[in-house]
């Protein structure tokens, strides 16, 4: 069963186009993560937050990614990473056009 992973953390930038340029290689490498279906990158310059919403094939893949990603972020100096793995209510989500079909 697919699992949704929500991750956020304090982040001072870069944001927007500068972030896109700086993290393109990382974004491309994330496509190779086991079980990843898709990722939406999230950012808030106003709140100084970065993160993402991910869809994984299963909880094992989501949990393994969260462990690895937390360690990667901590190596970059980010001390508090918030990650939650969610079940998805597919029937309701499809009513609202979620990209999970």
TrEMBL record:
Transmembrane helix among keywords: no
InterPro entries linked to this entry: Dimeric_a/b-barrel (IPR011008), YdhR (IPR014910)
GO molecular function: monooxygenase activity
Pfam families reported for this sequence: ydhR
Keywords carried by this UniProt record: Monooxygenase, Oxidoreductase
Gene3D superfamilies noted in UniProt: 3.30.70.100
Regions crossing the membrane: none
Keyword Nucleotide-binding in record: no
NCBIfam families xref list: PRK11118.1
Name the record gives this protein: Monooxygenase
């Amino acid at each position: 069963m697919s699992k949704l992973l929500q991750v956020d953390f304090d982040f001072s930038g870069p944001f927007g186009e500068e972030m896109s340029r700086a993290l393109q290689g990382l974004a491309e490498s994330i496509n190779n993560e086991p079980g990843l279906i898709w990722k939406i990158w999230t950012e808030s310059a106003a709140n100084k937050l970065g993160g993402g919403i991910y869809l994984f094939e299963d909880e094992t893949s989501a949990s393994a990614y969260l462990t690895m990603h937390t360690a990667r972020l901590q190596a970059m100096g980010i001390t508090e990473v918030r990650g939650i793995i969610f079940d998805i209510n597919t029937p309701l989500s499809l009513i609202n056009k979620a990209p999970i079909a």
